[in-house]
Design a protein that fits this description.
Blueprint: E1 3-4, H1 14-22, H2 42-59, E2 65-70, H3 73-85, E3 91-96, H4 99-108, E4 113-119, E5 140-146, E6 148-149, E7 154-155, E8 170-173, E9 190-194, E10 205-210, H5 227-232, H6 242-257, H7 260-280, E11 285-286, E12 298-303, H8 309-318, E13 321-322, E14 333-336, H9 343-360
Parallel strand pairs: 1-13, 3-4, 3-5, 5-8, 8-9
Antiparallel strand pairs: 2-10, 6-7, 9-10, 11-12, 12-14
Helix pairs in contact: 1-6, 2-6, 3-4, 7-9
Bound molecules: pyridoxal-5'-phosphate.
Length: about 350
């Protein structure tokens, strides 16, 4: 049994992969693989409709929001957000909590003046700045933040509150914690996420956007970068990432069987508590992130002595625990424990870490 702790593309539920295998050559008696279907044919249209329906149901997406199934990854959203949401304004607010928000800021700076309303760079991005420290710009077109920093392992466990007298959209990059817990979509103007962390395979990017925000993109916005074009065409202006949508649809059905977002949240809390409690009760390992802001999805940690890193990774692999190497920019280890990681995977990791520490301390 192998447990895959990759940050992304990441583990998928075994049941989903088995179903995809069974349906690989002949989907529901159609005589076709999903990969071979026309995106406008009735078979794939049924898959796309079911996928959107299940996503709407799980996340309780209000009817005045559009759900878009796009390509280009979360990184293309770093440009699409300003192109579509500036709407005549020249400024935007960003919260900088790590590498992904920094990239979003860099890209948005090509289109507007970015006000970094708060940043945790002073402590190497190991915490989330509380909202009372934010210096928002009254002229900003929108407020952008990253709910979970996949590399640093810091996560918002709260939703920023917008002054009800200000009609300013809250925009969030939820790439690595989408559908890991219940979410109140109506608090947001726009939610985006690349699928390959917590939803499905690489190639699909999901955007959930308030309808009122559509149709006001910058002049010269490329057609494929305009949300309104995709919304008007039910994400079929051009070929959507059909196979990735199908697998994501299977993941959504799996999530429903797990008790929906409340059900999966309880499991995610149990997994994260198990790992963090262990980390906090050893001298050998260290997690740099502030306790209140620790990610339930990505758990970075270092060993007492980095000279043992290679031995740790090698022995972990021999024990069926793979892809634990930390991001190249931060070093150490990172265990990504997304929705699809079963509790047993984390139990096995903790047991291995304990044994390794006993031999190397
Ligand atoms: C992985 C990731 C991205 C980039 O996603 P791509 O699909 O590779 O463009 C952006 N934001 C966050 C939070 C991520 O985890």
């Amino acid at each position: 049994m192998i447990y895959n702790f990759s940050a992304g593309p990441a583990i998928l539920p075994k049941e989903v992969l088995e179903q995809a295998r069974d349906e690989m050559l002949d989907w529901h008696g159609s005589g076709m693989s999903v990969m071979e279907m026309s995106h406008r044919g009735k078979e794939f249209m049924a898959i796309a409709e079911q996928t959107e329906h299940d996503l709407r149901e799980l996340a309780q997406i209000p009817s005045n929001y559009k759900v878009l199934f796009l390509q280009g990854g979360a990184s293309s959203q770093f440009a699409m957000v300003p192109m579509n949401l500036l709407q005549g304004k020249k400024k935007s607010d960003y919260i900088n909590t790590g590498q992904w928000s920094s990239k979003a800021i860099e890209e948005a700076s090509k289109y507007c003046t970015v006000n970094v309303a708060a940043s945790s760079s002073d402590r190497n991005f190991t915490y989330i700045p509380s909202q009372d420290q934010w210096q928002l710009d009254p002229e900003a077109a929108y407020i952008h933040y990253t709910s979970n920093e996949t590399i640093g392992g810091v996560e918002f466990h709260w939703t920023p509150q917008i002054d009800p007298n200000r009609n300013i959209p809250l925009v969030v990059d939820m790439s690595s914690d989408i559908l890991s817990r219940p979410v109140n979509v109506s608090q947001f103007g726009l939610i985006y996420a690349g699928a390959q962390k917590n939803l499905g395979p690489a190639g699909l990017t999901i955007v959930i956007v308030l309808e009122d925000l559509l149709g006001k993109s910058l002049a010269n916005t490329p057609t494929l970068f305009d949300y309104h074009i995709h919304a008007k065409n039910d994400s079929m202006y051009n070929t959507p990432p059909t196979y990735a949508m199908y697998i994501t649809g299977l993941v959504l059905q799996w999530l429903k069987q797990k008790g929906g977002l409340e059900g999966i949240e309880a499991i995610n809390i149990a997994k994260a508590n198990l790992l963090y409690d262990f980390l906090d009760n050893t001298e050998y390992y260290h997690c740099p992130v502030a306790k209140s802001d620790r990610s339930r999805m990505n758990v970075p940690f270092t060993l007492h002595d980095s000279a043992s890193d290679d031995a740790f990774l090698k022995q972990a692999k021999l024990n069926g625990l793979i892809q634990l190497k930390g991001h190249r920019s931060v070093g150490g280890m990172r265990a990504s424990i997304y929705n699809a990681m079963p509790l047993e995977g984390v139990e096995k990791l903790v047991a291995f870490m304990k044994e390794f520490a006993d031999h190397h301390a």
